Amino acid sequence: MEWPTAADYRRRLRTFAVVRKFAYFNEKNESYRMRSFCKKKVEGCKWYAYARQLPRQPTWKLRGLYPEHTYTWDPDKPNPIANSRWVADMLEPLIKRHRKVFKPKEIITEMWDQYRTEIKYCVT
Ligand SMILES: [Zn+2]
């Protein structure tokens, strides 16, 4: 798997985590590589993703992945990964498509419909 830039990779990872209902933290978060672990690593979850930039180009490539989770995120709890920046990223194409600015309540409904994630009102 490859992404055109580091920003694309980060956005994809965040969306993936929201959809799959888990949270992660980054280690070795450098300009050319990023290793991410499940927040439940302390409890024994082995999930991790490792991606790095290809030499002399902006492309990022997935180099390692342990895809299984030992625990699942409580689906009723808001995912801390769905922060305001992520919501803004996800809304951009929607705003372009509908040519309108969303009210906070509409944003929450939209995020729930699309990603099955609960976001706190304050995020918007
Ligand atoms: Zn996990």
Characterise this structure.
By secondary structure, the protein is α+β, with helices and mostly antiparallel strands. It has a domain at 2-66. The protein has helices at 6-20, 84-98, 104-115, and strands at residues 2-3, 24-27, 33-38, 48-53, 60-66. Strands 1-5-4-3-2 form a 5-stranded antiparallel β-sheet. A hairpin with a 6-residue loop joins strand 4 (48-53) and strand 5 (60-66). The longest helix has 15 residues, at 6-20. The radius of gyration is 16 Å and the shape is flat. The model has no long low-confidence stretch (mean pLDDT 80). Zinc ion is lined by residues 22, 38, 40, 45, 47, 69-71.
**Major sheet details:** 5 strands, antiparallel
Bound molecules: zinc ion
**Roughly what percent helix?**
25-40%
Distance between the termini: 31 Å
Q: Rough shape?
A: flat
Number of alpha- plus pi-helical segments: 3
Counting DSSP E segments of at least 2 residues, the number of strands comes to 5
SSE string: EHEEEEHH
Radius of gyration: 16 Å
Stretches with pLDDT under 50, minimum 5 residues? none
Major β-sheet strand ordering: 1-5-4-3-2
Amount of beta strand = 15-25%
Could you tell me the mean pLDDT? 80
Q: What is the quaternary state of this protein?
A: single chain
- Label the structural class: alpha+beta
